[in-house]
Write a structure and sequence with these properties.
The complex is a heterodimer of chains A (301) and B (338). By secondary structure, chain A is mainly α. In chain A, helix 2 runs parallel beside helix 5, helix 3 packs antiparallel against helix 5 and helix 6 crosses helix 9. The longest helix of chain A is centred in the last third of the chain and has 52 residues. In chain A, 25% of the residues are buried. Chain B folds into 2 domains: 207 residues, no CATH class; 50 residues. Chain B contains 12 helices and no strands. Chains A and B meet through helix 1, helix 9 and helix 10 of A and helix 1, helix 3, helix 4, helix 10 and helix 12 of B. Chain A: Belongs to the CALHM family. Chain A: It is found in: Membrane. Chain A: One of its GO terms (molecular function) is monoatomic cation channel activity.
């Protein structure tokens, strides 16, 4: 428990760390989702491509949107973009910086899904088994064109009776898997090179502007948090005062109606203050009813 | 738990330790990636070589670049390299030290991948199965097959279930042969890397040790300085935001007082602090107006100079405060030392 608390505190220490933490969690979640998803290729001529490509591209879109939703900074950025200018000018560089950092972080989980999908190979085998050239594979070379599509579509299904022990099926499967894995590694390589170049070359262009944009985007985030904390604090005090006024007014009403003379004796006063003159069941019931039916106005001046 | 906390703090203590930690994690991740990766030799004549060598060489390159990308020092190095000279000279030996130390750390995960791959043997078996010496290991007097046919048969060696060349060369013989070569290469590679690391470490003090110590010190200094600057800016932004919001609320309540011509009520003595914390906003309409104004009309990023002459030039561009002065407590301490 202590260990988790420490890790948690480390990530909470500033908002960038929090976002990196969320980004990492989404990436892990996407790997877990893929491994627990039960991929089941339909093995029918036109359905294969739709299913395979659908599984490869729709979950990444969902993960991208989740990454945008879970990131607090996207709301802050939208607010900063849409607010009227007023006495504080708007700085487009700050908004651009925030937008690019949000999008970069949201892209990590979809990319992880796509790479894992390609390295695993099932999606591509399912989608493109019908597009393979049958002449290359012995078992499919001498079959009529109408039937060959049907047979090729069944390649992803290992347990189909026709395909169970077919060496040609295994050959096609291997061939497609090899391409899928090559594509996966290539995608990963290109992205890593892009990330490396971006990190290496960024200080060469406008470093001062970047430092300013980063500082002010951090500032806007902190300011929004402090404003919310101040409002919370304020509403707490406001509510406290409002309720105190309510109790006092109830106390006065009860005194007026029941003509209770103020008691002598100072020892009892401390506790009486807490009870605020409401000392029996009927009075409490009346107080609760009034609280529900006639809430006091929002005015403690 | 205490032990874990100590380890965690040790790694956090400076950037180099942190990078060593990341480096170790990446090495472990590379072995994990290798075992999780489903190696799938295509068993076709030209594809085998491309696939086998690709799996041997492309992931290490990716891991090497990843080692650089994850290292925060890379942007520090690029920044230090590209910054204008100004009043602080630039020392190329410091830059060289930073680059070398980053490159050394980034090399560990790729070396681990290559070693594990060679010691496991699948990649080399897949890539070079068509180059197995059939004359020495197999039955070369088998009814003559064309060169292409032989290549196709040999290409299926890694795929036991579709191998049909048992007459030409036994599958186990070929696989054992290739694996033996692969493992020998693997151990030689590990030995070579370890020897290199040993030489680098032991011979370095023999060459310009004083210059090395100097470069190391100043590279640590640049790293610490940058971190402290970021922390100071964050602190400053926090204080700036607090004062800005405070002044916003004060401005709102002063505006309302002026607009409604209220005489300020005498607050009861006991409610002093609570009343002040309410920031002068005591009813729904005022609060709504404050919230609307916060969105529609954010205050400028310009804190009013304090009423007291603290003498800091921070906000002092000589402008008089636009609102009537409200008695302030000593808040100048927040920003006067920056």
């Amino acid at each position: 428990m202590d260990r988790f608390r420490m890790i948690f505190q480390y990530f909470q220490s500033n908002s960038e760390s929090v976002m990196n933490g969320i980004c990492g969690l989404l990436a892990l979640a996407s790997v877990k989702m893929y491994t627990s998803f039960d991929f089941s290729c339909p093995c029918l001529p036109l359905y294969n491509m739709a299913y395979g490509l659908g599984i490869m591209f729709i979950p990444p879109i969902i993960l991208f949107l989740c990454g945008l939703i879970l990131n607090r900074q996207s709301l802050v950025m939208l607010e900063e973009w849409r607010r009227p200018a007023g006495p504080r000018k708007k700085d487009l560089a700050v908004i651009r910086y925030m937008c690019s950092s949000i999008v970069q972080r949201a892209m990590v989980a979809p990319v992880v899904w796509i790479v894992v999908t390609l390295l695993d190979g099932k999606c591509l085998i399912c989608a493109f088994s019908g597009s393979v050239d049958p002449e290359k594979f012995v078992g499919f070379a001498n079959v009529s064109t109408a039937q060959v599509q049907q047979l090729l579509a069944k390649v992803p299904c290992k347990d189909d009776e026709l395909m169970r022990n077919s060496t040609s099926r295994k050959a096609v499967s291997r061939y497609l898997r090899c391409w899928s894995q090559a594509l996966g590694w290539s995608v990963l390589l290109i992205l890593i090179i892009a990330a490396f170049l971006a990190r290496w070359l960024r200080p060469c262009f406008n470093q001062a502007t970047l430092l300013q944009a980063r500082h002010w985007s951090n500032y806007i985030d902190i300011e929004q948090k402090i404003f919310e904390e101040t409002c919370c604090e304020h509403s707490r005090l406001f509510a406290h005062k409002c309720i105190l006024h309510f109790f006092e007014s109830m106390q006065q009403e009860i005194k007026l109606h029941s003509f209770i003379l103020p008691r002598e004796g100072e020892e009892a006063e401390g506790e009486e203050d807490l009870l605020r003159g409401i000392t029996d069941q009927d009075q409490v019931n009346k107080l609760l009813k009034t609280w529900y039916c006639e809430k006091p106005p929002l005015d403690v001046s | 738990m205490d032990k874990f906390r100590m380890i965690f703090q040790f790694f956090q203590s400076n950037q180099e330790s942190f990078m060593n930690g990341i480096c170790g994690i990446m090495a472990l991740a590379s072995t994990q990636m290798y075992s999780a990766f489903d190696f799938n030799c295509p068993c076709l004549p030209h594809y085998n070589l491309a696939y086998g060598l690709g799996i041997l060489l492309v992931p290490p390159f990716i891991l090497f670049l990843l080692g650089f990308v994850l290292n925060n020092n890379i942007s520090m190095l690029a920044e230090e390299w590209r910054r204008p000279q100004g009043r602080r000279g630039k020392d190329p030996s410091v830059l060289r030290y930073m680059f070398c130390s980053m490159a050394q750390r980034a090399m560990i995960a790729p070396v681990v991948w290559v070693s594990v791959t060679l010691l496991d043997g699948k990649c080399i078996t897949c890539a070079f199965c068509t180059s197995v010496p059939v004359e020495t290991l197999g039955n070369a007097s088998h009814p003559r097959l064309s060169q292409g046919e032989i290549q196709r048969v040999l290409a299926r060696i890694p795929c036991k279930e579709i191998y049909n060349g048992q007459q030409l060369i036994a599958n186990e013989v070929a696989v054992r042969y290739l694996r033996c070569i692969s493992q020998a290469l693997g151990w030689c590679f590990v030995l070579l890397m370890t020897t290199l690391a040993f030489l680098v470490r032991s011979l370095r003090p023999c060459f310009s040790q004083a210059a090395f110590l100097k470069s190391r010190y100043w590279s640590h200094y640049i790293d610490i300085e940058r971190k402290l600057f970021d922390e100071t800016c964050a602190e400053h932004a926090r204080s700036f935001a607090k004062v800005c919001i405070q002044q916003f609320f004060e401005g709102m309540s002063t505006d309302l007082v002026a607009a409604r011509c209220h005489l300020p009520r005498n607050a009861p003595a006991g409610a002093g602090e609570a009343a002040e914390k309410l920031l002068g906003i005591t009813d729904q309409g005022t609060m709504n107006m404050a919230l609307k104004s916060w969105h529609r009309c954010k205050p400028p990023l310009h804190l009013h100079p304090p009423a007291l002459p603290t003498g800091n030039g921070w906000a002092g561009e000589g402008q008089p405060p636009p609102h009537p002065s409200v008695p302030r407590r000593q808040r100048a301490a927040y920003y006067s030392w920056v």
